[in-house]
């Protein structure tokens, strides 16, 4: 949580000035977005005149001039001029740019807290017990964890919920199989690959042997009835899986821990009640022996309604029932005002149906925001679906190992003097960072290729590149030595400094946008752009060998603020920012 006072961005202040000028130039118009953007040949450009001219019935350029005339240069704005067909070009005073830099540095970025007072449940990661985590869970885990940290950094309260798949008919099959194959070596193993094998053997049996399938179904009944011997095996299966999940969470350095667990089994005792409430409200109805919710908005290819099945004809509850329960619990007990559910895009219909039923039940209303946050698929390096040769999902652990090995080679080649321990440490941090960055820098709903060579490249839009950029900033600051940074507001601002100040000042707006759209890639894109802008600043504007002491101080302030911003952004993405590499 940030505690320092927020620093208002220059763009925000200019927007307010232009909006006021529009109101004076066109009294009586509805408030509109003044369309203030960063300009190419000018600091900012306001583009609203074009859109307003039509409704005002005035020539665009004349209207732009009228708006410009209402902008009295003061505060950050030094000049306002009409340009092109109807743009207003705005230039900022040099002193304001330095002042803003000093303010942000003093305030430790000075991020605003637009999410103060909101309580957001983020439902993410959610792997399934007795199966290994796959790349889909990787996406849910890293995107979810970034959204959590992002909302917290903007003042929000977040409740993490890891809805692991720890209940359901598959446990009947697994437990029955173990019962009938007492020699199966799984007990006490911390290796989820063994459980994965167990899952496959049990599933094969279930498919091939009808009598076994019947016994497995009775096991489900025993599990649900609370049979102690059955529950004991179930608990072991969950514990072994959890140990494996936690190992991956620690390796990925995500903020999930056991207190965030909110597995399907937790809801089991409440399902009768959830279903009864929906039935009493007339929302759940009988259909061919099953209990369903119908909604005319959800229809199949032939216009047939697609039901949300709350109770199957055999009396069993399923995934949909449990999710109705998560929704009710999160609103009523957790008092969530916002709920985000992260899964791949294939579950879109499930969540649309669950949310629609929750609205009909009155559990969620206009004061709640409930969103399925879908993401695209991870493909193999060849662009084909990511599967092993035998058609299985690819295990996450092996991919992380491969990424760390790839990063190790790249780092060792760049820095042959690193000793073994330092190389190990940096390889782990860059390898994991590379995987997370590749995922988080891709637009959320886009599929991407898991291409390790590209992920660990030093000269691309990669985590490694940003980590090196950060280490370089840290090294400049080490060379500069300790001491206060004194910003001289009277110094002129050159072009490369200007670009950097303005870019740094956009950070808060980028975070707000990333949070509003649940799009972490906006942070990644920003950081990559920032690193580039810094690079050209550093090429053109000597820092440690600046011409004057005042310039050196001002440029060091920019280096500090850039390091702080990059460090903060990388931490939101859950990527380590080493001081040395
Ligand atoms: N375990 C599910 C899966 O692997 C994801 C659960 C997501 N959360 C939820 N509340 N449905 O697909």
From TrEMBL:
It comes from the Bacteria. InterPro entries: aa-tRNA-synth_I_CS (IPR001412), Arg-tRNA-ligase (IPR001278), Arg-tRNA-synth_N (IPR005148), Arg-tRNA-synth_N_sf (IPR036695), ArgRS_core (IPR035684), DALR_anticod-bd (IPR008909), Rossmann-like_a/b/a_fold (IPR014729), tRNAsynth_Ia_anticodon-bd (IPR009080). CDD domains: Anticodon_Ia_Arg, ArgRS_core. Residues 12-92 form the Arginyl tRNA synthetase N-terminal domain. One of its GO terms (molecular function) is ATP binding. One of its GO terms (cellular component) is cytoplasm. A motif ('HIGH' region) lies at residues 127-137. Its EC number is 6.1.1.19. Keywords: Aminoacyl-tRNA synthetase, ATP-binding, Cytoplasm, Ligase, Nucleotide-binding, Protein biosynthesis. Its main location: cytoplasm. Residues 466-581 form the DALR anticodon binding domain. It catalyses: tRNA(Arg) + L-arginine + ATP = L-arginyl-tRNA(Arg) + AMP + diphosphate. It is found in: Cytoplasm. Belongs to the class-I aminoacyl-tRNA synthetase family. NCBIfam families: argS. Monomer. This is Arginine--tRNA ligase. The gene is argS.
């Amino acid at each position: 949580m940030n505690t320092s006072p927020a620093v208002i961005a220059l763009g925000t202040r200019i927007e307010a000035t232009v909006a006021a000028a529009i109101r004076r130039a066109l009294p009586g118009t509805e408030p509109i977005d003044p369309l203030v953007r960063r300009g190419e040949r000018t600091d900012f450009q306001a583009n609203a005149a074009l859109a307003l001219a039509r409704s005002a019935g005035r020539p665009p350029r004349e209207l732009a001039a009228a708006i410009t005339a209402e902008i009295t240069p003061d505060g950050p704005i030094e000049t306002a001029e009409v340009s092109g067909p109807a743009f207003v070009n705005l230039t900022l005073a040099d002193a304001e740019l330095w002042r803003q830099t000093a303010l942000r540095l003093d305030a430790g970025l000075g991020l605003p807290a637009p999410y103060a007072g909101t309580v957001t449940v983020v439902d993410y990661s959610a792997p399934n017990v007795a199966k290994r985590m796959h790349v889909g869970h990787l996406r849910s885990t890293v995107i979810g964890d970034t959204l959590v940290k992002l909302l917290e950094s903007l003042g929000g309260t977040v409740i993490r919920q890891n809805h692991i798949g720890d209940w359901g008919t598959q446990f009947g099959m697994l437990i029955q199989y173990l019962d009938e194959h007492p020699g199966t070596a799984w007990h006490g193993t911390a290796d989820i690959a063994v459980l994965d094998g167990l899952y496959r053997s049990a599933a094969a049996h279930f498919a091939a042997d009808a009598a076994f399938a019947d016994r497995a179904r009775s096991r489900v009944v025993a599990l649900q009835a609370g049979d102690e011997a059955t529950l004991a095996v179930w608990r072991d299966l969950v514990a072994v899986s959890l140990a494996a999940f936690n190992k991956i969470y620690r390796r990925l350095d995500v903020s999930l821990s056991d207190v965030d667990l909110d597995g399907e089994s937790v809801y089991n005792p409440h399902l009768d009640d959830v279903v009864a409430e929906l039935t009493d409200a007339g929302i759940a109805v009988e259909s061919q022996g099953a209990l369903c919710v119908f909604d005319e908005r959800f229809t199949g290819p032939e216009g047939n309604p697609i039901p949300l099945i709350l109770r199957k004809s055999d009396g069993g509850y399923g995934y949909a029932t449990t999710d109705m329960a998560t929704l009710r619990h999160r609103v009523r007990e957790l008092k969530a005002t916002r709920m985000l559910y992260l899964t791949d895009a294939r579950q879109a219909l499930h969540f649309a149906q669950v949310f629609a039923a929750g609205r009909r039940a009155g559990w969620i209303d206009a004061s709640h925001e409930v969103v399925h946050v879908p993401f695209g698929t991870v493909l193999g390096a060849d662009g084909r679906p990511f599967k092993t040769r035998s058609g299985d999902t690819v295990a996450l652990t092996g991919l992380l190992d491969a990424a760390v090995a790839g990063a190790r080679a790249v780092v060792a080649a760049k820095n042959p003097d690193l000793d073994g321990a330092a190389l190990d440490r940096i390889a782990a941090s860059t390898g994991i960072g590379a995987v997370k960055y590749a995922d988080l820098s891709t637009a959320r709903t886009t599929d991407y290729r898991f291409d390790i060579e590209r992920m660990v490249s030093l000269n691309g839009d990669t985590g490694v590149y940003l980590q090196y950029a950060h280490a370089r900033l840290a090294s400049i600051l080490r060379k500069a030595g300790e001491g206060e940074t004194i910003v001289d507001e009277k110094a002129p601002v050159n072009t490369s400094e200007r670009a950097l100040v303005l870019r740094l000042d956009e950070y808060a707006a980028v975070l707000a946008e990333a949070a509003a759209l649940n799009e972490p890639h906006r942070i990644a894109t920003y950081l990559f752009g920032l690193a580039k802008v810094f690079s050209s600043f550093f090429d053109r504007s000597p820092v440690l060998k600046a011409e004057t002491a005042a310039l050196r101080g001002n440029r060091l302030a920019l280096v500090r603020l850039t390091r702080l911003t990059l460090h903060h952004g990388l931490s939101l993405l859950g990527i380590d920012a080493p001081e040395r590499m």
